[in-house]
Amino acid sequence: MNHLIATLPYILFSLVIIGVLAYSDPRRRQLHQKVSGKTTRAGLPLAARKALAWSLALPFIPMALTGNVAGMLMYAGALTVIGWLVTEIPASVI
Amino acid sequence: MSNVTESQPRSKAKALLNLHSWSGIALGMLLYAVIFTGTVAVVSDEVGEWSNSNQHQQLLATQNVDEVLSQLAAQTNSDYLEEISAYEDHRQNLVFFFHTHRQNPDGVMDEYGVQYKVNANGNIVQQQEGFGSDIYAQDDSYALSRFLVSIHTELHLPAPWGLILTGMLGLAMLIAAVSGFMMHRHLFTDLFTIRKQRDGKSLKRDSHTVAGTWSIPFAILLAFTGSFFSFATAFGLPAMAIVAFGGDQEAMMHTLVGEQQHKSKAPQPSASVNTMLSDAVSRQSAVPTFIAISHWGTESASMMAFFMPSDGEVGFAQLVYNATNGDFVEFKPQVGTVPSTGSVIMSLIYPVHFGTFAGFMSKIIWISLGVASCYVTVTGLQLYAFRNEKQASGWRWFSRLCVWGFCGLPLCSLSSALAFFVSGALVANQSVWTPLAFVLAAAMVSILALTVKSIVRLQNLLLASNGLLCLLLPVIRYLTSEFGWLQAIEQGNVSLMFIDAVLLLCSGWCFHRIYVSSEAKQSNTNDADAIVHDESLNDTAGVAK
Q1: Quick check: B352 and A73 CB within 8 A?
Q2: A73 CB within 8 Å of a chain B CB
Q3: What is the dihedral of CA B51, B52, B54, B60, to 10 degrees?
Q4: Which residues are within 8 A (CB) of B279 and not within 5 positions of it... i.e. 6 or more apart?
Q5: CB–CB of A87 and B196 under 8 A?
Q6: Which 9-38 residues of chain A touch chain B by CB within 8 A?
């Protein structure tokens, strides 16, 4: 059970990062502005978005160091599902 | 010259699109069936527990296995003492199968012997003699989970054709995933974008692309491992037996499993199974899923305890004991006698494919991956149907086929679960009624698909039936077992609550879809009325002028 508990914070971390990436996505923002006619959202520079995207790989380092192979696989699966589900949320919400 | 260089990538993209479309269209519906039932197969153990309103009691650790085994061995034909497997079933019995190996009527090497089911009090509740495959196929406690898993693995087609077909479906999924990845030019820029249509619905193409893009790594992984399973059993092992072992499958299995072919049958009392079991439990901090004892009561006696992946690991663990003195011998590799990369890979394939490596949490993630893959298949086929329907009305049958398959398969699966409970309550043969209900439901759905003219009405009808069955099944399960949520909470029976909750959630989703569909219809009707009203006003104004 320990490796499950160890993986959970990383999964929550990925949820936050993917949420921020979706929120600051230029095409999504463009779409939202087109629909709502509002220009309320602040974007992120491309370099910051790239850094955020790469940060999703960071949890693999502690998991590899602790030999938590199951956690790595689970994190990769969760990343996939979270990415899809967050994207499915309408642009007006995120 | 520039036209030539521009047309090359365009023609390549077109070729990839064709490859992607046809690999999906040709086998898409069957692929959906395999993915949907695969998603259910991830929780096949939980479905088994839920369908029997049971929770594993870890009887291998709590019962006096040694005493029961000795009593049963004394009353069993000595030929069947060659191998004894023991595990706990879904009805709180310990199952002992004393067997030897023989060719079954299909010409396949099979286990043959006598199976005893022993309850928690040590009494034999059932005794059967025959081939292992036949006994397992008639075991009512596994009727529902076995039926659903069998659709996933071989679509209920005779061997080896079912395995070959599912292997091909895995390859089709692999081709679709890779070609989809290669042909999409804005893969990362479109990763978060789902455009909306004028009526507010998501654009089908975007829904398909986004779900497909996110799930590509796992689609490739699951398609590859699935194809490996199918082809290894249907082609790989028989081919290996012919090439490397001159057709001797038994010799091949001895090499792969790592057992000596010729063992001494000289009698010698065996060590206590309880001692070996408690040692295995302390080493793995878990109770084995099953144990297999070879050559019980001889000087070649050995015991193997099989464990699901332990903390942080992905592969299975197999502990081998010398059953003459009870000493621990080794952690046995999955393949062969010495640790190897091939053995590690082999031990990873099953847990990675079914997500059984980290208990419930990994299973929930794998179910979500299955749902994402189902969604990609559904939106892909719907997209094709939608595009062709717009171009030619003769393609409406394809939309109908999509509704028939996408809503029909869950309905048939739910019907088989309903039949499982009802036949159990009527003390009928659950192994017969479970698949029969599926076939009857499939016939009903087909008749409806052919007779109901409006596709929307057909879809709503099937969704309503799905929703109703999802709502009814937990109630029927409770009525037939009298095992409710309060007892489940008291006993910590997570599987039962999880499946019940998922069914209720699915029911809510079905009725929500019907509501959304009726709202959209209402809105379309209002729009049409408004247009007619505007036109009549214009006409009146024209007449007045």
Answers
A1: yes
A2: yes
A3: -110
A4: B321, B326, B328
A5: no
A6: 21-22, 25, 27-28, 31, 35
Report the half-sphere exposure of B176 (CA within 13 A, side-chain side): 28
ipTM rounded to 2 decimals: 0.91
- Which residues in B lie closer than 8 A to residue A27 (C-beta atoms)? 189-190, 192-193
B508 in Cβ contact with B538 (< 8 Å)? no
A61-78 confidence digits (pLDDT tens)? 999 998 888 899 999 999
Structure tokens at B493: 């029976």
Distance CA B456, CA B461 (A): 9
Residue A77: closest C-alpha in chain B: B365
Chain Cα centroid distance, residue B413: 12
- Which pair of structure tokens corresponds to residue B188? 């990362």
Whether residues B309 and A35 touch (CB distance < 8 A) is answered with: no
Interface A–B counts its CB contacts (< 8 A) at 94
Cα angle B437, B441, B445; round to 5: 175
- Which residue type, as a one-letter code, is found at position B16? L
Query: Which segments of B237-368 are extended strands (E)?
Result: 290-294, 302-307, 317-322, 327-331
B-chain residue closest to A28, CA distance: B193
For strand B317-322 and strand B302-307, is the pairing parallel, antiparallel, or unpaired? antiparallel
Q: Which two tokens stand for residue B543?
A: 């007449």
pLDDT in tens, B104-154: 888 888 999 999 999 988 899 999 999 999 999 999 999 999 999 999 999
Q: Which tokens sit at B451?
A: 């007779």
Structure tokens of B385?
């149907």
Based on C-alpha coordinates, what's the Rg of chain A? Answer: 15
Q: Using alpha carbons, select from B35, B80, B374 the residue that is nearest to residue B72.
A: B80
Whether A77 sits inside 8 A of B366 (CB atoms) is yes
Give the strand pairing for B327-331 and B83-88.
unpaired
